[in-house]
Design brief:
Length: about 675
């Protein structure tokens, strides 16, 4: 099929890009556009041109798959220069997505008309690059520097209405955008020739700070800010030339490669292996059991996507309050334009205190306390009251799906759906079929996750699934490091310097130490006394230090602010643990801390992959980045490992093996480092 389909309507050359799935601006598209623009310029019977996208979308951007390869002419700036140089007007007819290079193409046209529902944005910084084909120079000429800093720096995607208000698009139509473009052929109006609207320096400075913060100061954001500011300071041609160099340099950077890996890994993760593909059961009504934080978050996520939700809790007071909070939260989301007003005004929420009321649900998600006996009791009730064929899901983060399923007479309908808190915000969803789950259940869970606009990842049913199992290994290693000589703030600082959103002890304090404490107590009887065990967390809890919520944990908290370091009590507890183990404490350098923490993750990832808990290595990266604050720009622990020297990695694992001692299971790096997505 031709990459560009040409037709003539009322003397207008319609150039329809046809490059499935998203009409990316691959080399054949660029070449075809150059040829078509030459024809438009030369053919006297043509009055102007329209550039549109075939099927569901305009253009999703440059072809990200080309980014790892040597650039091939014609380049996007050449195409866009040809649009501007064409003596006849060219209209961009937008629908679906106009992103990255797609929006840049539209900005090079004389006029932009968008169908309602079009999404526009310059998300390049999320791929570690800056707009490289004039976006940083043309956008400020239409919207001003501070709005351009916000859009480019934060990678925000906006709708057609907002784009119209900002001046990015000239007209919004309900239907037939190509027809409207043909009908409204304008005079030539080159964006590059427009002046950048003047603005108060304070407004620009404020937008710059916000963009830097949103982009965590990563190199692409820094470069994007500089390029946008150039637009106001330099003539267009000079600004354009200054934009291209950092774009090309960043495109070739390891960070951009890691971010591209994440882009494709996330899309791959949502694909089920062939053997598990099935038509998923229809799900329209969802019952959520438990109106606590997790249950309410899941209910909100489902309501926002238009599901009917039955929220069950035996505690009527708690339930009423949760219902009120949900109404308020949805109204807030509607007011912020994040969901349609109808979803908030016609809330499809019912509150239930009786089990019989869950009968209409196609999917029931249990979100009660993480305790096997409690969950089994819930599942006995679900078995008695859910309709036949309903999917019965448990939102457990560690427990065995089969043991929970065994509490029912229909284990074939039982599935693990592990949400992350806050469940209405976090995108990750671990989908965990049990050994008795029906063949279509994995598909049901994945499809439900996609409908919630989450990132569902298939996991095997093993303790902690993918995420918590790796996080446990990491956190255990960090506890060993406390006992070996580091203080909590040293471990946290080293890992935050590596790029983690928060260090493990700050995270532990935030989520509360008591959950881990209870779990450890439950497992104590089964723990081999020869296994290395660090009693620091237990001791902190025994002293009432449950983390942030109790005002103290590894750190102390005053007015919600974390102390800079651990206090004498914590240090005393840690030093006592070291002494009890007979360890003479020695300082650990930040690199040693990073090496051990990463080695622990990589080793566990190797075990998970070998055990089949993860379907593919890249799924592990998706889980750790999306759910556990692993730095996205590093690409996840497996991607990171693949960038390291093999011998150094093995030495890192030698160190953690020695630190753990008895019972350490060493994973083989062979599979982890070589496995490619099926
Ligand atoms: N290049 C190559 N492939 C792309 C692509 C792109 N820009 N955008 C999406 N795809 C592919 C995906 O990998 C996926 O392939 P698969 O089916 O083989 O897995 C397929 O298109 C469909 O993508 P999604 O699964 O994401 O489909 P959705 O319908 O959920 O979303 C979308 C569509 C909103 C367009 C989303 O794909 C998206 O946000 N794409 C990325 C947009 C982007 O970042 N553009 C900037 C590119 S960089 C650039 O343009 C540089 C320029 O300044 C020079």
């Amino acid at each position: 099929m031709e990459a560009l389909q040409l037709s003539v309507r009322e003397g207008v050359l319609v150039m329809e890009i046809s490059n499935p799935p998203v009409n990316a601006l691959s080399q054949p598209v660029r070449a075809a556009l150059m040829a078509a623009l030459a024809r438009l310029g030369a053919d006297e019977s043509l009055r102007g041109g329209v550039i549109a996208g075939a099927r569901g979308t305009f253009i999703a951007g440059a072809d990200i798959k080309e980014f790892g390869k040597p650039p091939e002419a014609p380049f996007l700036p050449d195409v866009f220069a040809a649009i501007e140089a064409c003596p006849k007007p060219v209209v961009a007819a937008l629908h679906g997505a106009a992103l990255g290079g797609g929006l840049e193409l539209a900005l090079a046209c004389d006029v932009r008309i968008a169908e309602a529902g079009t999404v526009l944005g310059l998300p390049e910084v999320t791929l570690g690059v800056i707009p490289g084909a004039g976006g940083t120079q043309r956008l400020p000429r239409l919207v001003g520097v501070s709005a351009a800093l916000r859009l480019i720096g934060t990678a925000e995607r906006i709708g057609a209405g907002a784009a119209h208000r900002l001046g990015v698009v000239d007209e919004v139509v309900e239907v037939d955008v190509v027809g409207a473009a043909v009908a409204h052929l304008p005079a030539k109006r080159r964006v590059s020739a427009l002046p950048v609207p003047p603005e108060a320096p304070e407004a620009v400075a404020k937008a710059e700070v916000a963009a830097l913060k949103a982009g965590k100061g990563r190199p692409a954001v820094v470069a994007a800010i500089a390029a946008v500011k150039d637009a106001a300071a330099l003539p267009f041609a000079e600004g354009l030339a200054r934009e291209r160099a950092p774009f090309l340099a960043l495109r070739a950077s390891p960070e951009a490669a890691a971010l591209r890996h994440m882009f494709f890994a996330e899309r791959e993760a949502m694909r089920l292996p062939a053997a598990l593909r099935a038509t998923p059961r229809a799900i329209e009504t969802v019952a959520v059991i438990g109106a606590g934080t997790m249950g309410s978050g899941i209910a909100q996520a489902a309501l926002e996507e238009g599901f009917a939700v039955i929220l069950y809790d035996q505690n009527a007071d708690l339930l009423t309050k949760a219902g009120e909070r949900l109404c308020a939260a949805l109204a807030e989301r509607a007011a912020a334009g994040k969901i349609t007003p109808a979803l908030a005004t016609k809330l499809r929420l019912s509150l239930a205190t009786g089990w019989a009321e869950i009968a209409p649900a196609d999917l029931v998600i249990e979100a009660v306390f993480e305790d096997l006996a409690v969950k089994q009791e819930v599942f006995r009730q679900l078995d008695a009251h859910a309709k036949p064929g309903a999917v019965l899901a448990t939102n457990t983060s560690y427990l065995d799906i089969d043991t929970i399923a065994a509490a029912t007479s229909r284990p074939q309908d039982v599935l693990g759906l592990h949400f992350f808190s806050p469940a209405n915000v976090m995108k990750l969803l671990e989908v965990v079929p049990g050994s008795a789950s029906a063949p279509d259940l994995a598909a049901a869970g994945m499809e439900f996750g996609k409908r919630l606009k989450k990132l569902p990842v298939l996991c095997g049913n093993a303790f902690g699934f993918i995420g918590n199992r790796i996080y446990n290994a990491y956190r255990t290693q960090c506890e060993f490091m406390l006992e070996d000589g580091a203080w909590p703030e040293e471990v946290d600082a080293a890992l935050e310097a590596f790029g983690f959103a928060m260090g493990p002890f700050a995270v532990a304090d935030l989520s509360g130490l008591d959950i881990a404490w209870r779990m450890r107590a439950a497992q104590a009887a089964r723990r081999d006394p020869r296994t290395r065990y660090v009693p620091v967390l237990d001791e902190l809890c025994a002293q009432g230090r449950f983390g942030r919520k109790s005002g103290a944990g590894y750190y102390t908290y005053a007015a919600g602010k974390r102390s800079a370091g651990s206090d004498a009590t914590v240090r005393g507890i840690i030093a006592a643990a070291s002494a009890a183990r007979g360890v003479s404490r020695h300082p650990l350098a930040p690199e040693d801390i990073q090496r051990r923490a990463l080695a622990a993750m990589v080793n566990e990832a190797a075990l998970l992959l070998a055990d089949g808990v993860a379907q593919r290595a890249s799924d592990i990266d998706v889980v750790l980045v999306q759910g556990y604050g692993f730095p996205r720009h590093v690409g996840g622990p497996v991607y990171w490992a693949r960038m390291q020297d093999r011998a150094a990695l093995e030495r890192g694992i030698d160190i953690i093996a020695a630190a753990a001692g008895f019972g350490f299971r060493r994973g083989s790096l062979d599979l982890l480092l070589t496995e490619s997505a099926p």
